[in-house]
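Now for my pick.
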Amino acid sequence: MRYRSVSVSAKKRTMNKRAQSRSAARLAAVQALYQHEMEATPVAKLIHEFHQHRIGATIEDAEYAGADTEFFDDIVKGTLARSEEIDAAIITRLASGWSMERLDRTMKAILRAGAYELIARGDVPVGAVVSEYVDVAKAFFDAREAGFANGLLDAIGKDVRKPT
């Protein structure tokens, strides 16, 4: 019995480490998407820069967590490759009178990355995606904006992951 509980604990630590690595990948992807929008950095250069100089690095006394780089790459590349589809999914859920241009660039990056995962990553549960990107939104915004991200991503998730 004791062996089994050690095994479960090891499994939980592994799952927590994987979850933390994916959380770090999501945050880095949002930062990369923001940088891409601000500077139009080519995708290959952007990804290389994050791999070499940001993910797992310490910059100006801020330590960047290690991230699942394959997951990071998928979010960044996939979001940019499917940008028209993703933006259309977001736009249809914005209140009347709102447009993508009116959204803060950080919020756009959060919504785009979250929408990409909801649309393209069926292996990740809707609740996990929404919760993770709400946490990212809370790192940059107050509760009102985090609630906005929650509502919009939840609506996209319900639409694109309809039970068959």
In short: Helices lie at 2-39, 43-53, 69-81, 83-91, 105-120, 126-140, 143-160. Residues 1-14 have pLDDT under 50 and may be disordered. The chain has seven helices and two strands.
